[in-house]
Specification:
The protein has about 450 residues and is an alpha/beta fold. It is built from 17 helices and 12 strands. It has a 7-stranded mixed β-sheet with strand order 1-7-6-5-4-2-3, sandwiched between helices. The chain has a 5-stranded mixed β-sheet with strand order 8-9-12-11-10. The chain starts with 20 loop residues before the first helix and ends with a helix. The structure holds pyridoxal-5'-phosphate.
């Protein structure tokens, strides 16, 4: 595969100076060295609280009349550098970094919906997200309706599932684990016809391969634990907003009406360019506290600096692994949209000029036992519950990440006992293929 650099990703220059992705991932959020010390790296501001100039100054910051730090549960300057950088990379107006991808998803839903409301989601999701939507979220009175993107009329099904109480449409850019794709442009039109935002989990694509906000999405969520951190060290989750959605359209009183917990302040007025993140930080983070540690924010910033380099190598290796597995006699159903017979191949050609990530599934001939034998026999690949690390990873989804799903839900998501999920890393391709080959020989 020949890599096209980011000039060829639709969207071209990414910031007002015309700088490209690779430059922004190194500089946005810290344009000049730390003014206090000259430190080139973003410092870790390990402090819980901040000294105000005066009581009046404190009151202005508390009431959001002026920007400023109050307390570590709400803001931190290491975290802010990350937020500015990911905002620039995704092409949004603001971002909020929180403790995990799961927290980012929960906050996103809770920022939009209240008891009695619902969301409409694709069935093809990370198992934890599916579990939250199907089982935990309803305890707060918010329900989910699911649409199978494999249905050839899925856009119509999304349209028909939205009712007067629906507060968002939720999908993953590249579905976990089967790497299915969804027409984000078309789905955003469906959501907008109903006056609700499209939320896209962009964890598997990263802004380097696809930027949902350029295709009509209003909110992007990502598990920063995966490609962004990239080294399997810390958890984090991020929400980025486009700044374009009209939260004053009558469906979202939490943004357009006076907030009783903030002396009657209206988020659409106080933060017109980023009301979504402002409210999430000021209300949800303030009251429920899934904040990121400054140390973790620093580690995630280090990850961002090499995001494009790692993703390029991982995609390059994945292309070769997919070709190897697709022609191996002991495998079947390699689920990657780069393959011409994959249902997502048309969208792959349209949306992914630089490849569709490094996480995908396939079936091992020999059923559940064959799949387990294969996974247990790998030596270079680590058997663990994570993806998108620089090291190659493997898991048996039916027995682990998706084990809380019912048989029916597993079938809907295309996960069988024989299904294996790989996350291809940055090792030398010859070593990766050799490991896969010796494990398949043992099946
Ligand atoms: C696509 C996707 N979204 C969200 C999450 C949750 O992220 P975290 O593990 O950081 O809470 C995961 C975790 O695997 C994921 O794969």
């Amino acid at each position: 595969m020949t890599f096209k650099n980011s000039e060829n990703i639709p969207g071209g220059p990414r910031n007002k100076e015309g700088r490209r992705f690779e430059t922004i991932q190194l500089h946005a959020g810290q344009e000049s060295p730390d003014p206090a010390t000259g430190a080139r790296a973003v410092p870790i501001y390990l402090t819980t609280s901040y000294v105000f100039d005066s009581c009046d100054d404190a009151a202005d910051i508390f009431m959001l009349r002026k920007p400023g730090n109050i307390y570590g549960r709400l803001t931190n300057d290491t975290q802010s550098a990350f937020e500015k950088r990911i905002t620039a990379l995704e092409g949004g107006s603001d971002a909020l970094l929180v403790a995990s991808g799961a927290a980012a998803i929960m906050y996103t839903v809770q920022n939009l919906a209240s008891a009695g409301d619902n969301i409409v989601s694709a069935t093809t999701l990370y198992g934890g997200t599916h579990n939250y939507f199907a089982n935990t979220m309803p305890h707060c009175g918010i329900t989910a309706k699911f649409v199978d993107p494999a249905d050839k009329n899925y856009l119509k099904k999304f349209d028909e599932s939205i009712d007067g109480k629906t507060k968002c449409v939720f999908v993953e850019t590249i579905g976990n684990p089967n790497a299915n794709l969804i027409d984000i442009d078309a789905l955003s039109e469906v959501a907008h016809r109903h006056g609700i935002p499209l939320v896209v989990d962009n964890t598997f694509a990263t802004p380097y391969l696809f930027r949902p906000l350029e295709h009509g999405a209003d909110i992007v969520v990502e598990s920063a634990t995966k490609f962004i951190g990239g080294h399997g060290t810390v958890l984090g989750g991020v929400v980025i907003e486009s700044g374009k959605f009209d939260y004053a359209n009558g469906k979202f009183p939490g943004f357009s009406e006076p907030d009783p917990s903030y002396n009657g302040l209206k988020f659409v007025s106080v933060a017109p360019e980023a009301p979504f993140c402002a409210r999430m930080r000021a209300i949800l983070l303030r009251d429920t506290g899934a904040c990121i540690s400054p140390v973790n924010a620093f580690v995630l910033l280090q990850g961002l600096e090499t995001l494009s380099l790692r993703v390029e190598r991982q995609v390059e290796n994945t292309v070769k692994v997919v070709e190897f597995l697709n022609s191996h006699p002991k495998t079947e159903n390699v689920n990657h949209p780069m393959l011409p017979d994959n249902p997502g191949h048309g969208l792959y050609n349209r949306y992914f000029p630089n490849g569709a990530g490094s996480i995908f599934t396939f079936d091992v001939k020999g059923g559940r036992e064959g799949a387990k034998k294969f996974a247990d026999s790998l030596k270079l690949f680590s058997l663990l519950a994570n993806v998108a690390d620089v090291k190659s990873l493997v898991i048996h989804p039916a027995g682990t990440t998706h084990s809380q799903l019912s048989e029916k839900e597993l079938t809907e998501q295309g996960i069988k006992g024989s299904t294996i999920r790989l996350s291809v890393g940055c090792e030398h391709i010859d070593d990766i293929i050799a490991d896969l080959k010796q494990a398949l020989d043992k099946v």
